[in-house]
Backbone:
């Protein structure tokens, strides 16, 4: 089960967090209404895990799927309802899976107390003086709901996305602003994307703060009191081998805010995710 | 008895004749193509092949009034003519009897506008083509 969930998450983080925009003439980036498709990519895909005591995630298979109706669309686990669409402007209501939850939900490793206490400067003894026993640190996936806007221009495309938690209850919010562009040269397509994500304190504290029960204290430990900004850069290239098969390389680097390193749960403030292999369109 | 037989035979004969007459096809005027797709300027350009098949041999004129074009052919049961046409509107084609100009059959070349299927932009960079 975990393996399956991991594969889905990987396709989200690698294929999922980027959005395609390209010249109007490129028909592969447009699909007819009521079109759906499934892609299976075979190769090597991985996410470095910046969380403490968790291993990198690796897979040999990355499935993706899409459906576009009159207004409704699906891209993997992202659901969208389009309010307006023309050649220069897209406005959608969207639901999507937040990326922080992915890092916690693909393996079963726990974080032991010994490691935690080395990293937290202010961990005192609990109220009753006994050593705290940590259980497995668990964090749920967060499904976000909100909206997005695309401005499609001749030189670059701009995306603005807002989402708020609707499944967990921490009511965290995130806003994303990115620039992206794709190019087509004969059989090769290139894509780049650079963006900033602003996550509210509620979202960061849910994922990187500690609950009172996890530390054996009376109060939760927050990692931040304000919204924090992450950055990311992504590049991808595909090479057309046949009508249904293409070679793919995709790489994304996420730079998290340094303030988050205050959390004992986080070991690094950046991580790489990527895939190299063959994509088959079904 | 004799009269009954005659009536009976007569009725049969009449029915037989009627049958034969209806199985003999009505005059047919066929166009190839039946539909013409407009180009960007809204004009249709095509070579129209017109076939007329009548009930009996006669001299027939094929006319397209809108283009002020007409071609007449000698007595035959089947007539065929090709003509290059350019038009912005539907064309009415008429087959006329060459002698008394009576309309034998009519057909219309219909113009259509090409409309590509609506498409939507992928929200994600696609790995496939």
Residues:
């Amino acid at each position: 089960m975990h393996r399956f969930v991991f594969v889905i998450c990987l396709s989200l983080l690698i294929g999922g967090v980027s959005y395609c925009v390209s010249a109007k003439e490129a028909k592969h980036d447009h699909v007819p209404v009521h079109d759906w498709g499934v892609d299976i990519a075979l190769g090597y895909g991985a996410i470095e895990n910046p969380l403490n005591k968790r291993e990198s995630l690796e897979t040999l298979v990355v499935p993706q799927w899409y459906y576009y109706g009159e207004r409704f669309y699906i891209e993997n686990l992202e659901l969208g309802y389009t309010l307006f669409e023309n050649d220069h402007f897209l406005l959608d209501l969207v639901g999507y899976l937040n990326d922080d939850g992915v890092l916690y939900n693909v393996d079963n490793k726990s974080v032991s107390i010994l490691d935690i206490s080395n990293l937290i400067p202010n961990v005192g003894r609990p109220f009753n003086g006994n050593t705290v026993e940590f259980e497995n640190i668990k964090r749920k996936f967060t499904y976000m709901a909100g909206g997005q806007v695309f401005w499609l221009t001749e030189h670059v495309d701009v995306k603005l996305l807002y989402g708020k938690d609707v499944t967990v209850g921490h009511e965290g919010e995130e806003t994303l602003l990115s620039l992206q562009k794709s190019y087509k040269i004969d059989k090769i397509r290139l894509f780049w994307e650079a963006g900033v994500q602003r996550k509210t304190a509620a979202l960061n504290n849910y994922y990187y703060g500690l609950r009172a029960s996890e530390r054996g204290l009376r109060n939760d430990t927050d990692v931040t009191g304000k919204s924090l900004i992450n950055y990311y850069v992504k590049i991808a290239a595909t090479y057309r081998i046949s009508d249904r098969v293409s070679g793919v390389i995709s790489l994304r680097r996420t730079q998290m805010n340094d303030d988050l390193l205050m959390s004992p749960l986080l070991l690094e403030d950046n991580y790489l995710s990527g895939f190299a292999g063959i994509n088959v369109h079904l | 008895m004799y009269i009954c037989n005659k009536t009976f035979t007569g009725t049969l004969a009449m029915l037989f004749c009627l049958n034969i007459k209806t199985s003999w096809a009505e005059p047919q005027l066929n166009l190839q193509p039946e539909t013409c797709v407009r180009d960007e300027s809204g004009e249709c350009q095509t070579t129209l092949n017109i076939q007329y098949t009548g009930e009996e041999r006669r001299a027939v004129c094929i006319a397209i009034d809108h283009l002020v074009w007409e071609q007449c052919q000698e007595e035959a049961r089947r007539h065929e003519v090709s003509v290059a046409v350019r038009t912005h509107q539907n064309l009415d084609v008429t087959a006329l009897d060459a002698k008394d100009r009576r309309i034998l059959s009519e057909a219309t070349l219909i113009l259509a506008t090409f409309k590509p299927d609506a498409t939507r932009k992928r929200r994600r960079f696609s790995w496939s083509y």
User: Anything to note?
Assistant: The radius of gyration of chain A is 20 Å.
